[in-house]
């Protein structure tokens, strides 16, 4: 943790590295908020302790009450440690936010395959708990948080408001509270419980803290920024008609609804189309004025500023100029059907250029292709008859690919941008653009993305090989565990020894078979160890058997230790097994011990196994959701009471349907990131994702993915194609006009 090395005397000001260009007003705001962190966490701690005390006295089981008492004792004994851990974590997280880097405080991944990052259920559960805490704070303090973001956007110099402008957003507090919980308790379930309770208390406090911060910033003369929200006509809760662009004739029906349109004028062209020699069906001879208008539009689009500041729906600059050129272009067209089509196509492009989800770098790409697309539409009526046209396919492909990367300096993003700009220029300069030109461009982009994915997959081949081996190992372990379970049916021993043989030793055998081979000497030795171990736990029935056991034990214990080291079984678990075996063997070597090798009846076997199952059953229910009555807390929204998980079957089916090349949004290591599925194992037990960096990958188990899916923490990146979003916008515009006319 970076903050751990800072001067403890300076608890109000974050460090200012030379490369940290923090504005003075922003620095003052950060210092002020960090200066309040000690008082804040003290109040959080007091509120959390009160919730625990109230829960301790409620109608809980003895085990739950004991866990509650343990948490109270831990917090009381280590209150200072809890508060200091929170303050240090908050400082480090805020510093990371201002530096623009990823947090050092993300959960550490497991590296069980030679350094390979592997996210399993345990690590995913941490992300789920942090996400729930973040959502709880966000829901409780929603309006105050939105207001604060308008001020922080000004402080960091953004032209529009975004959640990322606020270094003190809910994710920062949720992660800091998790770090504080980790500092005082070691059990994962207790950490989760402590986070949930403290987040509930913090949410109520932050509602007031955010509001107070807004008041202070306003009193300092800070002007709030404005949200970059596309305010669509026809709002006010009135439902607008929908139009599925994939439906046959959908674009044609929209064409007929445009100004001046009628049911009979949905297609391009007119009587002159058939008479014009040398032109495709539907093409209409255009006037010189029209060609001049096209050239002026192309020149405007070539130099049009399309940065973030120009994307407001009613901007008086770029978009207004486009509207003027659209009107001139429409007026110069020869036929009514053409004017109608030009109006529609121009509005589609203007809407796309105002789409806030489209990166600014790719608005230029779309703009450069507009004139060529207009020419294609006038030559090929099918373009406005159906979405299944190469022009629309290319537009949607660019829109989908452009939002796949988190950082604009990502080398993959830069390479894609360069390719798309090159393609757009070629299309813009083509003397007679047609559908085949756009189809070839689409093939180039598809090929580029496929090659990019294959390159990442080749770079990740060591990870793929390790995961393939892990899958084979897992399947083999399952098979061996079942064989060992069957072998132990007639063996009477302790539940601990039974677990060791069927679980840990199954791992030893699987590892030996994969590493050395089925017939190798080490594998044969580990296999023989099973027979020797099971024989050794039986009480000998005569002195010769005890002598044999006495001679066997040194070799047996040596092989057991070697096997446990082979799978890196933790030392405490190793010692627990050896201690239990020592007790059993000491009893077996004691003279006069009664033999248990006598045959048992089926009834005796069933009763013994029943007894062992009971003895092997888990203890009291862990300290989880049921310990605290969350419904009694004002700050907990109803949807949080059930944990936010949907059906396991549904999440499992979503994971099963994932296919290579799909792009996702994934909450991992305490933050949202964009990723692409590179590979899934043959049995679907492991998944490998390309992350938000050219060499960054995430290896995730199937069960972990199902947990993320159930919690809503992995979703497809783009639900609607770019063309559909543009059509939705136009439908709202069209639907509002009759209402305006009637006003």
Let me know the largest β-sheet. Answer: 7 strands, mixed
The count of DSSP E runs of length 2 or more, i.e. the number of strands, is: 7
The low-pLDDT segments are 1-22, 102-115, 229-238, 262-282, 308-316, 594-646, 739-743
Structural class: mainly alpha
Shape: flat
Fraction of residues in helix: 55-70%
| Rounded Rg | 34 Å
Topology summary:
Layout: H1 24-35, H2 37-56, H3 62-77, H4 79-99, E1 110-113, E2 116-119, H5 121-140, H6 142-155, H7 170-184, H8 188-219, H9 250-257, H10 271-275, H11 288-303, H12 318-332, H13 336-353, H14 360-368, H15 370-379, H16 390-402, H17 411-429, H18 435-459, H19 461-487, H20 495-516, H21 521-536, H22 543-566, H23 571-589, H24 602-616, H25 638-641, H26 648-656, E3 663-668, E4 671-680, E5 686-690, E6 697-701, H27 702-710, E7 714-716, H28 722-742
Parallel strand pairs: 2-6
Antiparallel strand pairs: 1-2, 3-4, 3-7, 4-5, 5-6
Helix pairs in contact: 2-3, 2-4, 2-8, 4-7, 5-7, 5-8, 5-27, 6-8, 7-8, 11-12, 12-13, 13-15, 13-28, 14-17, 16-18, 17-18, 19-20, 20-21, 21-22, 22-23, 26-27
Notes on the structure:
- The chain is mostly helical and 743 residues long.
- Among the domains are: 250-266 and 286-459, no CATH class; 463-616, no CATH class.
- Helix content is 61%, strand content 5%.
- It has 28 helices and 7 strands.
- A 7-stranded mixed beta sheet has the order 1-2-6-5-4-3-7, with helices on both faces.
- The longest helix is centred in the N-terminal third of the chain and has 32 residues, at 188-219.
């Amino acid at each position: 943790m970076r903050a751990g090395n800072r001067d403890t005397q300076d608890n109000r000001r974050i460090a200012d590295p030379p490369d940290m260009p923090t504005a003075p007003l922003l620095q003052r705001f950060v210092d002020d908020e960090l200066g309040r962190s000690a008082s804040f966490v003290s109040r959080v701690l007091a509120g959390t302790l009160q919730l625990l005390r109230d829960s301790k006295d409620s109608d809980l089981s003895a085990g739950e009450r004991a866990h509650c008492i343990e948490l109270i004792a831990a917090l009381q004994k280590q209150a200072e440690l809890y508060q200091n851990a929170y303050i240090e974590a908050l400082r480090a997280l805020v510093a990371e936010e201002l530096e623009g880097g990823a947090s050092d405080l993300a959960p550490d991944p497991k590296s069980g395959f030679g350094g390979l990052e592997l996210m399993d259920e345990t690590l995913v559960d941490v992300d789920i708990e942090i996400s729930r805490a973040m959502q709880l704070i966000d829901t409780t303090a929603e309006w105050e948080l939105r207001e604060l973001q308008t001020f922080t956007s000004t402080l960091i110099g953004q032209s529009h408001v975004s959640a990322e402008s606020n270094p003190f957003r809910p994710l920062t507090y949720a992660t800091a509270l998790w770090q504080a919980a980790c500092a005082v308790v070691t059990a994962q379930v207790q950490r989760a419980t402590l986070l949930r309770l403290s987040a509930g208390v913090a949410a109520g406090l932050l509602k007031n803290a955010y509001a107070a911060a807004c008041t202070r910033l306003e009193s300092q003369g800070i002007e709030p920024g404005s949200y970059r929200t596309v305010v669509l006509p026809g709002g006010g809760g009135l439902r607008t008609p929908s139009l599925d662009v994939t439906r046959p004739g959908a674009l044609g029906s929209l064409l007929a609804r445009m100004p001046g349109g009628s049911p009979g004028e949905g297609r391009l062209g007119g009587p002159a189309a058939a008479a014009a020699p040398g032109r495709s069906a539907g093409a209409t001879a255009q006037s010189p004025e029209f060609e001049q208008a096209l050239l002026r539009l192309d020149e405007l689009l070539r130099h049009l500023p399309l940065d973030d500041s120009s994307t407001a729906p009613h901007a008086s600059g770029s978009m207004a100029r486009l509207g003027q050129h659209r009107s001139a272009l429409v007026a110069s067209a020869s036929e009514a059907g053409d004017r109608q089509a030009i109006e529609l196509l121009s509005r589609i492009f203007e809407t796309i250029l105002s789409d806030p989800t489209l990166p600014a770098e790719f608005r230029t790409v779309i703009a450069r292709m507009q004139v060529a697309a207009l020419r294609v539409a006038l030559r090929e009526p099918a373009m406005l008859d159906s979405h299944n046209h190469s022009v629309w396919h290319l537009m949607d492909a660019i829109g989908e690919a452009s939002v796949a990367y988190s950082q604009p300096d990502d080398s993959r993003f830069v390479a894609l941008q360069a390719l798309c700009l090159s393609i757009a220029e070629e299309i813009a300069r083509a003397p007679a653009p047609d559908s085949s030109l756009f189809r070839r461009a689409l093939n180039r982009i598809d090929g580029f993305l496929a090659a990019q994915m294959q390159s990442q997959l080749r770079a990740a081949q060591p990870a793929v090989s390790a995961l393939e081996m892990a899958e084979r190992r897992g399947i083999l372990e399952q098979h061996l565990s079942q064989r060992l379970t069957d072998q132990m049916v007639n063996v009477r021993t302790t539940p601990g020894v039974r677990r060791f043989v069927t679980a840990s030793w199954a791992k030893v055998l699987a590892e030996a078979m994969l590493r050395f081979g089925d017939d190798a000497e080490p594998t044969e030795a580990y296999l023989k160890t099973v027979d020797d171990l099971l024989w050794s736990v039986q009480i000998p029935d005569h002195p010769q058997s005890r002598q044999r056991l006495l001679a066997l034990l040194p070799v047996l214990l040596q092989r057991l230790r070697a096997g446990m080291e082979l799978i890196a079984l933790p030392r405490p678990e190793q010692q627990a097994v050896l201690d239990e075996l020592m007790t059993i063997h000491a009893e077996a070597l004691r003279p006069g011990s009664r033999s248990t090798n006598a045959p048992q009846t089926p009834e005796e076997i069933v009763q013994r196994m029943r007894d062992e199952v009971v003895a092997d059953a888990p203890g009291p229910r862990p300290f989880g959701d049921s310990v605290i009555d969350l419904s009694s807390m004002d700050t907990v929204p109803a949807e949080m009471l059930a944990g936010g998980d949907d059906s396991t079957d549904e999440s499992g089916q979503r994971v099963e349907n994932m296919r290579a090349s799909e792009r996702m949004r994934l909450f991992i290591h305490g933050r949202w990131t964009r990723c692409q599925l590179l590979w899934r194992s043959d049995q679907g037990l492991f998944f490998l994702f390309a992350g938000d960096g050219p060499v960054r990958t995430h290896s995730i188990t199937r069960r972990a993915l199902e947990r993320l899916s159930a919690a809503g923490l992995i979703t497809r990146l783009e639900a609607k194609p770019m063309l559909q979003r543009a059509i939705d916008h136009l439908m709202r515009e069209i639907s509002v006009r009759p209402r305006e006319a009637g006003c």
